[in-house]
Amino acid sequence: MSPAWTLGVLLLVADFAGASAAVRARPRAWPGTTSPELSASYSFLRAGEANLQGAGASASFHFWRSTRLLADLSLHSGSFAGADLRQVSFMGGLRRVFREDERWQPFGQVMAGGARSTSRFADVLSSGQTRWGGTLGIGTDYRLSDRWALRGQADYFVLHSSGGWDGDPRLSAGLAFRFVR
Amino acid sequence: MLGGVFMLLKTGRYLLVLMAAAALWRCGSSPTSPSGAGVKLQGVVLRDATASAASAGLSAQSAKAGKIVVTVQENPSLSVTVSGNGTFEIQDVPSGGFTLVFSVDGVVVGQITITAVGEGTTIRIVVKIKDQEVELVEIETEDDNDDGGDQDSGGDEPKSCMINGGKVSSHIELEGNVDSGTSSQFKLRVNGNRSSGLVDVAASGASYVCNGKKGSSDCKSNLVAEAKVHVRGNLTSCDTLVASVTATEVKIQK
């Protein structure tokens, strides 16, 4: 198991809230931990040797305890060596949120799905490939209000193509909205 | 107060975890690209590329593509696997010139020779692999040591390139007759007085067009001495005595 995967698994199973509970001053309980949530973000993707920029959107729904079901869609584009590159990724999985009663709410997530990469040269030649695999990710929400939160996130895409396995990191920053009743 | 300090430490811990994760990611994400100064090669491989109008058939064709490996013939330890989106990068390729060997699932499908490359240059290429054939679609060179000065010989400055209007690292089109050589490497006698000497043309990765018919396998055999050709490519080096062009397309007119 690679170091990145090991780190991801540790983050998913670790209980960050454990050791220092007695010291912390709990500000308040944030409502809507079981409410649906939408987020939108700007993101940067290192795809192969190319640096791509784009946007992503995700939706999550309460599943069990502090675990949420997650769907994620992102589109990135950029250029490399004179060719225009584009990548659309579509993933679904689980997210575990830690410290749901605090302003900073870190989370870890695993997803499975695919990514469609397209390379185009001078609008004349193009080729494309769909790759399948998954992602490991960590991030944190900073709650601005009951509904809104700032979100920072880092994911690692592991995708399989006919050429083997690729590992592509993605960094995102954006806003999350919770449908609190 | 204590709570505030604790919050700060906690936030710092998350940031550290994020940074450690990012560092781990970069360890495994790049193919074997030896680092260091010298010539850098960046490329994109279009697998089974088709014209945009026929893009509906792309996915079926692309699924057939296998693992593509690019190896520098002069130094086989410089070898990278092309990533899923077709990008690859090799650092420290030999200055002067080198040949890239493309293989799919271990089977060599073609090679491209790039000549007259100076130290500190970044070469960007777009390559098409189709039907067990490698074709150089585009080549662009950038001198990382260039101070932005124009190498073109214009005005009252002394002439530094034997081709009128020739600028190193830029696109060039030349018309003339083949003096000697083969379809992968030949010397071109440029029409008129545009060039004061023969131009070396590296055409191993170029596409060949004969009488308007592209891709004919017999076309390359028409490249013989005195054949009239139109060469499109990149001027990789030029001085008052020698000039080299890496061709992306060679049209044989007669």
Account of the 3D structure:
The complex is a heterodimer of chains A (181) and B (254). Chain A has a single domain (38-178), classed as Porin (Beta Barrel), CATH 2.40.160.20. In chain A, 6% of the residues lie in helices and 67% in strands. Chain A has one helix and eight strands. Chain A has one helix at 3-13, and strands at residues 37-47, 50-64, 67-80, 83-97, 104-121, 125-143, 148-161, 164-178. The longest helix of chain A is centred in the first third of the chain and has 11 residues, at 3-13. The radius of gyration of chain A is 18 Å and the shape is elongated. Chain A starts with a helix and ends with a strand. Chain B is mainly β and 254 residues long. Chain B folds into two domains: 33-146, Carboxypeptidase-like, regulatory domain (Immunoglobulin-like), CATH 2.60.40; 160-254, OB fold (Dihydrolipoamide Acetyltransferase, E2P) (Beta Barrel), CATH 2.40.50.140. Chain B is globular and about 45 Å long. At the A-B interface, helix 1, strand 4, strand 5, strand 6 and strand 7 of A face helix 1, strand 1, strand 2, helix 2 and strand 5 of B. Strand 6 of chain A pairs antiparallel with strand 2 of chain B, so a sheet runs across the interface.
Offer a few descriptive terms.
heterodimer; A: Porin; 1 helix; B: 254 residues; mainly beta; Immunoglobulin-like; OB fold (Dihydrolipoamide Acetyltransferase, E2P); 5-stranded mixed beta barrel; 4-stranded mixed β-sheet; 13% helix
Mean pLDDT of chain A: 85
Overall body shape of chain B:
globular
Instruction: State the total count of DSSP E strands of chain A.
Output: 8
Name the structural class of chain B.
mainly beta
Helix content of chain B: 10-25%
In total, how many domains does the architecture of chain B comprise?
2
Measured as a percent range, the helix fraction of chain A is under 10%
Low-pLDDT stretches of chain A are: 10-23
Q: What's the end-to-end separation of chain A, in Å?
A: 42 Å
Judged by helices, strands and strand pairing, the structural class of chain A is mainly beta
| CATH uppermost class of the largest domain in chain B | Mainly Beta
How do the SSEs of chain A run, as a string of H and E? HEEEEEEEE
Strand adjacency order, main sheet of chain A = 1-2-3-4-5-6-7-8
Largest interface: A-B, 52 and 55 residues
CATH superfamily heading of the largest domain in chain B: Carboxypeptidase-like, regulatory domain
**Compute the gyration radius of chain B: what is it?**
23 Å
- Main sheet summary of chain A: 8 strands, antiparallel, barrel
